Amino acid sequence: MLIMRAIFISYAVFAALVLAPADLQAGGDIEAITRPSKDPTLSFVRAGRIAEVLVKKGDVVQAGQVLVRQDDEAEQVQLEQLQAQAEDTTRIAAAQADLDQKKVDLKKYEEAKTKGVATDLEVEHAKLDVTIAQLSLRLAQFQHEQDKRKHTEAKIQVERMKLASPIAGKIEEMFVQPGESVEALEDVVQIVKIDPLWIDVPVPLGKAQGLKKGQVAAIEFIGSSSPSPKGRVVHIATVADAASNTLTVRVEAANAKGRPAGEHVRVRFADSAETASSQTTNTEPANISHLREEQGVINGQTAK
Known about the structure:
Blueprint: H1 2-18, H2 22-25, E1 30-38, E2 41-43, E3 48-53, E4 60-61, E5 66-70, H3 73-87, H4 90-114, H5 120-159, E6 162-164, E7 169-174, E8 181-182, E9 187-204, H6 205-208, E10 216-221, E11 230-236, E12 246-253, E13 264-269, H7 272-277, H8 284-295, E14 297-298, E15 301-302
Antiparallel strand pairs: 1-9, 1-13, 2-9, 3-5, 3-8, 4-7, 5-6, 7-9, 9-12, 10-11, 10-13, 11-12, 14-15
């Protein structure tokens, strides 16, 4: 039992020394890998046949640019029919005319009743006809509104048969060709944005707690002699990795030269002492004096 415990302790010490994170071995430099700041993979929400692919792998695209289109011939015919129904007001006009006629009839019956040539029952029937005509007009208006909603829904469905780029970037992967059939939510095209780049840095927990959003970080591309760019902290995770005792800190770096994502880099954050030195020190003497008074120290001697 003691031998097993000794072996376990020896392995733990070995892991701590040999398998220590690269950042602890490099004097504060932390190794990480760059990644695109955006890399959406687009899919259609409905199954269908690919009618047209408007871009190819490697093309630069703009936000809103149509990339791929499904066959929508049948849907376009249905859309035209629904548009015609949505624009047709014949039923409303007919219902309105019928209501106007029923109101005229009611007025005549009421006048006839005053002359004694129409009964109360005939007047009540005329009033009921007016009420029914009013309801018919409201129903025609409601159906017209429903027709307009159906037309709008059909337009949305047709628009969803086109894939437009949500970002400005570059086509990284194209998974389909014209004539192929795709299922709903099947990968169709991947777009990446590499300016700026993102770097998710596994920072030791003790050091990460001193970092702030917006803080500058130095970035060195491993194996490259080009000048090291500066990045800034854009996100600090709120949940640490218990296994490695690190906290993921996201650094954003400009990439106007178009370096590829996926490169190994070293990231260095300013030490806490350097950060403190950059802040104003006007209140430091007062803080020290206050601390000495709290400790009962006056002119370097302990108060009796």
